[in-house]
Input
Amino acid sequence: MTFSVVARCAETGQLGIAISSSSIAVGARCPWLRPGVGAVASQNITLPSLGPQVLDVLEQGVAASAALAAVLADEPHRDYRQVAVIDCAGRTAHFSGAQTLGIYAAVSGEQCVAAGNMLANAEVVAAMVRAFENASGPLADRLLAAMHAGQAKGGEAGPVHSAALMVVDDLLWPIVNLRVDWADEDPIGALDQLWQAYRGQLQDYIDRALNPQQAPGYAVPGDER
Output
């Protein structure tokens, strides 16, 4: 039903998630990030509240593995959950309950963890980790490289229809928050196109938020700057 990569950039400290699913609007339920704290992908039979719950524990200075264990200890339906976590130090954790759907796997790598269920084969997430570790450029580029690698390895057993990409830095809001809520085919490719269109404007939107008087104009009718 879903495969994802959760990661940290060792150079910038940015945290990010890229995710895709056969279900509609995966970005509305599964990725959870908090600047300077961590990132969590809650998937399979998704319980969205697991994301903020794990982040709350991480914010207390608890490492990823202990934070995930603490939250799952109070979750009566943990056998149906699949969760991947990275903390602000790059430590990772993952859990796949006994009722995780289809072929499933989760693999931790250097500053990243990938997880998936209803996969075409168990090697999908390992390919995602390798791709992330060997990619270069901004965190968003590396996350998308991992998603393309997972899809090339087989991805889900069936077609995927939604995808999302989120990155947080040191601001209170995500600096990247892009979603393809439904595509008949290739939502990962559509998400990549969104990122390519957005990446050149990313800093402009940050500048407008922090210093409107000196920020670049929008270059649209009605904007006289």
About this structure: The first strand starts at residue 2 and ends at 8. The beta strands are 2-8, 15-21, 31-34, 38-44, 81-87, 92-96, 105-109, 112-117, 162-168, 176-180. The two ends are 47 Å apart (CA to CA).
